[in-house]
User: Fold this.
Amino acid sequence: MVDLSVDLGFLKLKNPVLAASGTFGYGLEFKPFYDLELLGGFVVKGLYFNPREGNLPPRLIETPSGLINSIGLQGIGVEAFCREILPELAELDTAVIVNVCGEDEDEYARVAEYLSRFKGIAALELNISCPNVREGGRCPAQSSDATFRTVKKVKEVTPLPLITKLSPNVTDIVSIAIAAEEAGSEAISLVNTFLAMAVDIETRKPKLGNVIGGLSGPAIKPIALRMVFQVARAVKIPVIGIGGIFTAEDALEFMMVGASAIEVGTANFVDPDACLRIIQGMEKWAENHGIKNISEIIGSLKI
Amino acid sequence: MVIDRKARIIEVQDWDDYFLFRLESPEIARLSQPGQFIMIKVSETTNPLLRRPISLHNCTGREVEIFFQIAGKGTRLLSQKKAGDILDILGPLGRGFSIKNEFKGKEIFCVGGGRGIAPLYYLARELSAAGARPVIFYGGRTSADLPLKSRFEQADWEVKVSTDDGSLGFSGLVTSLVESELRHRTPTFLFACGPEAMMEKLAEICRKENLPAEFSLESIMGCGLGACWGCVKKIRRNGETKYLKICQDGPVFSRDEIVWQEKENG
Assistant:
């Protein structure tokens, strides 16, 4: 029997596998496929204060082992979420993490403050890294100062633990991670998608309605892994690894380089039960290697 | 209820780049409605990455049928599957066509363009079962785009075909054929599936004739489950115009709901 639980300090997870924001709807979409309580947790789709329309279609383009999306955070807004979805999620015995968005620092704080009034939320993931909502893919996670300010501002209005989600579209991701840590973030999750595009050579037009989007899937895994490795060595707070995780082996790699937990994203689209498969695969691997607590492998990379 | 299952291919028929697969899938056959679709895993590798949405062509007893055209890498891989192979399918998904009680004894136009004919066989069967009289309009660029003509004719429905190049049936667009039939016939409803330009034109014709209609849209989909919000279309509903998910709120929408040509965001 393997103990799969991991302790993030502010949050104990029954296993290290979280479903990633934007790939798992509001959670309930996956209820037909398995018992959501089998998950370490899940991160619901990013919420702004108000409902949001999202970007002009087409919003998805497949590339070799990858997917470029430019959804633009379409969603129902925080009030409808708390009224219509959260009561059902709050009943679940698993970590429900809410992804928080904002047009500016004030909106991040407003959304976080509103969510803090409700029961059933284990933590907030601060989405300062969506590449699809501002021109040129800009986001607060591209600047240490903006990251620090946003985290600080949200910390002031919520008692909920904060996981700051970083963008890979930066020159030095470590400095951004440190800014989030210094501002009081309880954890870091990385990475969001890589800015990307594709062109239709017949029409000479971009394949995405929004021109550029964010690349996810197995194509980005090695780069995401390298960034998690660098960040995990530089910060003291727990790191959650994200980026093209499709198998238990992928998840184990991220944990070995220092991730305390991982998020599964695009894989949920291909196999609705991808998270479950990964949990089972990790358990089996640990059994085969005589590991009693999965947390033993966190940061166990030998260099 | 959505089923994630392995389904064995019982039979494959092919016509150049069009394919008809018969699959053994008792659960999906039992749960499905005309106009719904399934998501099919076309590769065990990550290239291509996503499943492909394919509409249900027919459901009988323990079997479902799909009809598709090679449109890219994914459908090409799917087309290379053989009888006996096992497909990983997810479904039935989406909201299908509305078959109403008042259709009984009435004429219902079913218009398919190219591979858009796929869901109309299942639809016409259910319309017949409900006592309606389906009239099939089947349009293609050339006669090679009408491989299911004889299948529809054998089902004993009135079938009218058109080709853009005049190689078979009415010479011209299927929309022109529908328009000319409407001069002397008064169907109760129109269903259509095909290229958007065809459906947009049909919506315009139906509005002019005061003929209610439903259209089935096609889209690239991320998940098919409503989780990714990748397959949206601007839809007017309940006094609002907003992006709805083709996979979950559709793929079938009614005549005046669809914003066909969306020029700008917002």
Q: What stands out?
A: The mean pLDDT of chain A is 96.
